[in-house]
Protein backbone atom coordinates (compact mmCIF):
# COMPACT_ATOMS: atom_id res chain seq x y z
CA UNK A 1 0.00 0.00 0.00
CA UNK A 2 1.34 3.44 -0.87
CA UNK A 3 1.79 6.30 1.58
CA UNK A 4 -1.43 8.05 0.56
CA UNK A 5 -3.42 4.85 1.10
CA UNK A 6 -1.87 4.26 4.53
CA UNK A 7 -2.63 7.82 5.62
CA UNK A 8 -6.23 7.55 4.38
CA UNK A 9 -6.67 4.25 6.26
CA UNK A 10 -5.29 5.81 9.45
CA UNK A 11 -7.45 8.92 9.11
CA UNK A 12 -10.57 6.78 8.62
CA UNK A 13 -9.70 4.98 11.87
CA UNK A 14 -9.57 8.32 13.72
CA UNK A 15 -12.89 9.37 12.15
CA UNK A 16 -14.46 6.14 13.44
CA UNK A 17 -13.13 6.85 16.95
CA UNK A 18 -14.58 10.37 16.78
CA UNK A 19 -17.97 8.95 15.78
CA UNK A 20 -17.88 6.57 18.76
CA UNK A 21 -17.05 9.45 21.10
CA UNK A 22 -20.05 11.39 19.73
CA UNK A 23 -22.24 8.34 20.39
CA UNK A 24 -20.95 8.11 23.97
CA UNK A 25 -21.15 11.87 24.59
CA UNK A 26 -23.92 13.23 22.33
CA UNK A 27 -24.01 16.54 24.22
CA UNK A 28 -20.67 17.51 22.62
CA UNK A 29 -20.31 18.88 19.07
CA UNK A 30 -17.69 18.67 16.34
CA UNK A 31 -16.09 21.78 17.84
CA UNK A 32 -15.38 19.83 21.04
CA UNK A 33 -13.69 16.90 19.25
CA UNK A 34 -11.39 17.96 16.42
CA UNK A 35 -9.25 15.88 14.09
CA UNK A 36 -6.20 17.91 13.02
CA UNK A 37 -4.57 17.58 9.61
CA UNK A 38 -2.82 14.26 9.05
CA UNK A 39 0.55 15.99 8.82
CA UNK A 40 0.09 17.96 12.06
CA UNK A 41 2.36 16.94 14.95
CA UNK A 42 0.93 15.98 18.31
CA UNK A 43 -2.26 14.25 19.38
CA UNK A 44 -4.51 12.59 16.81
CA UNK A 45 -7.57 14.28 18.34
CA UNK A 46 -7.90 17.66 19.99
CA UNK A 47 -10.53 18.29 22.67
CA UNK A 48 -12.21 21.42 24.00
CA UNK A 49 -11.50 22.23 27.65
CA UNK A 50 -15.08 21.19 28.53
CA UNK A 51 -14.71 17.79 26.88
CA UNK A 52 -11.23 17.29 28.38
CA UNK A 53 -12.76 17.65 31.86
CA UNK A 54 -14.80 14.47 31.39
CA UNK A 55 -12.40 12.71 29.02
CA UNK A 56 -8.84 13.16 30.35
CA UNK A 57 -7.20 10.93 27.74
CA UNK A 58 -4.86 11.54 24.82
CA UNK A 59 -5.66 9.43 21.77
CA UNK A 60 -3.04 8.03 19.42
CA UNK A 61 -4.76 5.88 16.81
CA UNK A 62 -2.93 3.02 15.10
CA UNK A 63 -4.34 0.82 12.38
CA UNK A 64 -1.77 -1.69 11.25
CA UNK A 65 -1.40 -5.38 10.55
CA UNK A 66 1.67 -5.29 12.78
CA UNK A 67 -0.67 -5.74 15.73
CA UNK A 68 -1.77 -9.23 14.61
CA UNK A 69 0.17 -10.92 17.41
CA UNK A 70 -1.48 -8.65 19.97
CA UNK A 71 -4.88 -9.88 18.82
CA UNK A 72 -3.78 -13.44 19.53
CA UNK A 73 -2.91 -12.40 23.08
CA UNK A 74 -6.32 -10.77 23.45
CA UNK A 75 -8.11 -13.84 22.08
CA UNK A 76 -6.28 -16.00 24.62
CA UNK A 77 -7.21 -13.65 27.45
CA UNK A 78 -10.86 -13.64 26.30
CA UNK A 79 -11.03 -17.43 26.11
CA UNK A 80 -9.71 -17.67 29.68
CA UNK A 81 -11.74 -14.77 31.15
CA UNK A 82 -15.07 -16.50 31.71
CA UNK A 83 -17.52 -13.84 32.94
CA UNK A 84 -14.74 -11.33 33.64
CA UNK A 85 -13.35 -8.53 31.47
CA UNK A 86 -10.27 -9.74 29.60
CA UNK A 87 -7.16 -7.57 29.59
CA UNK A 88 -3.60 -8.15 28.47
CA UNK A 89 -0.73 -6.52 30.32
CA UNK A 90 2.39 -6.55 28.17
CA UNK A 91 5.88 -5.18 28.48
CA UNK A 92 9.06 -4.99 26.44
CA UNK A 93 12.56 -4.75 27.86
CA UNK A 94 13.32 -1.32 29.33
CA UNK A 95 9.77 -0.12 28.54
CA UNK A 96 6.82 0.50 30.84
CA UNK A 97 3.97 -2.01 30.87
CA UNK A 98 0.92 -1.46 28.66
CA UNK A 99 -2.65 -2.57 29.20
CA UNK A 100 -4.73 -3.76 26.26
CA UNK A 101 -8.47 -4.36 26.30
CA UNK A 102 -11.36 -4.39 23.87
CA UNK A 103 -12.69 -0.94 22.99
CA UNK A 104 -16.22 -1.91 24.04
CA UNK A 105 -14.96 -2.93 27.50
CA UNK A 106 -13.05 0.35 27.82
CA UNK A 107 -16.17 2.31 26.84
CA UNK A 108 -18.05 0.65 29.72
CA UNK A 109 -15.48 2.14 32.10
CA UNK A 110 -16.27 5.63 30.84
Written account of the structure:
The protein is mainly alpha-helical and 110 residues long. The radius of gyration is 16 Å and the shape is globular. The protein has helices spanning 3-24, 49-54, 68-81, 103-109; strands spanning 33-34, 46-47, 87-90, 98-101. The protein contains 4 helices and 4 strands. Strand 3 and strand 4 (98-101) form a beta hairpin. The termini are far apart. 45% of the residues lie in helices and 11% in strands. The strands form 2 sheets. The chain has a two-stranded antiparallel ribbon with strand order 1-2. Strands 3-4 form a two-stranded antiparallel ribbon.
Mean of pLDDT: 92
Total helical elements: 4
Helix % is 40-55%
SSE order: HEEHHEEH
Main sheet properties: 2 strands, antiparallel
**Within the largest sheet, what's the order of strands?**
1-2
The SS-based structural class is: mainly alpha
- Residue windows where pLDDT falls under 50 for at least 5 positions: none
Q: What overall geometry do the principal axes of the alpha carbons give?
A: globular
Q: What's the number of extended β-strand segments?
A: 4
- As a whole number of angstroms, the C-alpha radius of gyration is 16 Å
Distance between the termini: 35 Å
β-strand amount: 5-15%
Task: State the gist of this model.
By secondary structure, the chain is mostly helical. It has four helices and four strands.
Please tag this protein with its features.
110 residues; mainly alpha; two-stranded antiparallel ribbon; 4 helices
Amino acid sequence: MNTRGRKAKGRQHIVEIKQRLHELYPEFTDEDIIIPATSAPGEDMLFSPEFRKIFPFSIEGKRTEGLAQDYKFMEQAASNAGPHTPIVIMRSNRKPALVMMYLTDWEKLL
